[in-house]
Task: inverse folding
């Protein structure tokens, strides 16, 4: 089987890249990583050369290119069914897809106010309207799934759904947004995962600065 290549952006800031990278790494998938750094304000022309959408992440597998985080995770789950990126139980798979899609398409207030930033010192900000509702909904998702599965991850073992929420864990942490014990326990589990630690180490070593993400 051809070894896939995952094109990503800066590890400090790129929430979209973080998701499939953590999913593939956490599941033990062998892939090549190619980092194309953000280059604001004009953008990086190298991205357009490899991405049909002009954005990363992109997974290339042979001649096939797959873009968008969730599509990459779903394709990889089909390519490597033994990796456990989707739960084996049909009902659990449906729930995993539902919450992953909700993460993909929702929570715009939280995204806009609190960009992912691995290096950011922990500190609160004044939150605009809508952020508190986003936080409450995410905590409800996590609490319900953890109660159903027994943890420590959303569906028991680490899966693509956890990877989809990985940037939120960073946001909740660095902007000091939550204090529920069950939320903090899940965040601790995620931050202790070897894939998270590997990404974080690389992100902290980067020297690129994207001003609009330095809240």
Result:
């Amino acid at each position: 089987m051809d070894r896939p290549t995952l094109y990503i952006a800066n590890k400090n800031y790129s929430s979209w890249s973080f998701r499939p990278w953590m999913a593939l790494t956490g599941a033990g998938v062998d892939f090549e990583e190619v980092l194309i750094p953000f280059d604001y304000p004009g953008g990086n022309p190298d991205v357009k050369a490899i991405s049909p959408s002009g954005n990363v992440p992109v997974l290339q597998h042979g001649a096939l290119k797959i873009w968008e985080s969730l599509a990459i995770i779903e394709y990889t789950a089909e390519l490597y069914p033994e990796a456990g990126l989707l739960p084996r139980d049909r009902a659990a798979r449906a729930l995993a897809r539902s919450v992953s899609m909700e993460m993909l398409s929702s929570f715009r207030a939280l995204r806009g106010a609190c960009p992912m930033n691995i290096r950011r010192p922990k500190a609160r900000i004044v939150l605009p309207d809508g952020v508190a509702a986003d936080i409450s909904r995410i905590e409800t998702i996590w609490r319900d799934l953890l109660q159903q599965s027994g943890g420590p991850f959303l569906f028991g073992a680490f899966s693509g759904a956890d990877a989809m929420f990985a940037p939120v864990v960073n946001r909740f942490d660095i902007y000091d947004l939550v204090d529920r014990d069950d939320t903090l326990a899940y965040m601790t589990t995620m931050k202790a995962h070897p894939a998270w630690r590997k990404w974080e180490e690389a992100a902290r070593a980067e020297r690129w600065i994207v001003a609009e993400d330095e809240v």
User: Anything to note?
Assistant: The longest helix spans residues 131-149. The chain is about 50% helix and 5% strand.
